[in-house]
């Protein structure tokens, strides 16, 4: 069974905030693709990520980092999808050579709202197993695997936890089977922690709380 560590320590990035924008929704995900995938892949990824986060109380607005909007959020995260995030470029015999599938940025022990997901590594890990499916199902199963890695990193961002759970999406490592299984979600205390955070964000949203102050980044291990 191939397994891959999920997280990696990296240097933090600066946070930018919009000027005097209106509150639109509690949580926003700003997404960036290093290599822009087809629209169907993006739509499927967004849907699969919602399917993982909705049961733990997280709804989110999905935005491209390239959009210049005047919005402000109770909580936000920037997710960069690296490599190729579509089944179009999957290899039948992908060679997974190790490395993190995703990682977050940490500053002075605090998790910053920046996550990265390596689609090409995920494809190398699971791609060969996906050719048993039709093209449409293959896209869904692949994007669900990518969404599981993204959800894991967002767990760090939204809970502020750098520790991992024993099972479920908050685990430190995912196996190929877990990435491809029909059911693999947040469990137990990690699900409850996300649900509490989602409820807090919703409360702040109702109160129209201002955006938290930017954090000066440095580096720390995670
Ligand atoms: Zn992790």
Task: Give a short overview.
The chain is of the alpha/beta class and 222 residues long. The chain has helices at 39-53, 119-126, 135-159, 176-180, 188-206; strands at 3-5, 23-35, 61-64, 72-84, 102-107, 110-118, 173-175. The longest helix has 25 residues, at 135-159.
List the helices and strands and how they pair.
Blueprint: E1 3-5, E2 23-35, H1 39-53, E3 61-64, E4 72-84, E5 102-107, E6 110-118, H2 119-126, H3 135-159, E7 173-175, H4 176-180, H5 188-206
Parallel strand pairs: 2-3, 2-4, 4-6
Antiparallel strand pairs: 1-7, 5-6
Helix pairs in contact: 1-3
The chain binds zinc ion.
Rounded to an integer in angstroms, the radius of gyration calculated over CA atoms is: 17 Å
CATH topology: Collagenase (Catalytic Domain)
Strand neighbour order, sheet with most strands: 3-2-4-6-5
Largest sheet report: 5 strands, mixed
Please indicate the count of domains.
1
- The CATH homologous superfamily name equals Collagenase (Catalytic Domain)
Helix/strand-derived category reads alpha/beta
Helical region count?
A: 5
Question: How large a portion of the residues is in β-strands, by DSSP E?
Answer: 15-25%
Average pLDDT reading? 80
| Unreliable residue stretches | 7-23, 208-213, 217-222
Order of helices and strands: EEHEEEEHHEHH
């Amino acid at each position: 069974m191939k397994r891959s560590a999920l997280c990696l320590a990296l240097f933090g990035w600066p946070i930018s905030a919009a000027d005097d924008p209106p509150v639109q929704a509690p949580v926003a995900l700003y997404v960036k693709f290093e290599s822009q995938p087809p629209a169907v892949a993006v739509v499927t990824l967004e849907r699969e990520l919602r399917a993982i986060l909705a049961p733990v109380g997280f709804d989110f607005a999905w935005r491209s980092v390239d959009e210049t909007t005047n919005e402000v959020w109770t909580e936000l995260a920037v997710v960069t999808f690296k490599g190729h995030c579509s089944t179009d470029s999957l290899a039948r015999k992908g060679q997974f050579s190790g490395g993190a599938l995703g990682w977050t940025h940490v500053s002075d022990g605090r998790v910053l709202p920046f996550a990265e997901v390596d689609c090409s590594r995920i494809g190398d890990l699971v791609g060969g197993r996906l050719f048993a499916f039709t093209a449409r199902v293959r896209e869904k199963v692949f994007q669900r695997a990518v969404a599981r890695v993204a959800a894991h990193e967002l767990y760090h961002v939204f809970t502020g936890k750098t520790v991992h759970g024993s099972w479920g999406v908050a685990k430190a490592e995912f196996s190929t089977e877990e990435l491809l299984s029909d059911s693999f979600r947040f469990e137990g205390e990690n699900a409850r922690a996300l649900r509490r955070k989602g409820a807090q964000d919703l409360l702040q949203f109702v109160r129209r709380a201002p955006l938290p102050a930017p954090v000066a980044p440095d580096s720390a291990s995670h």
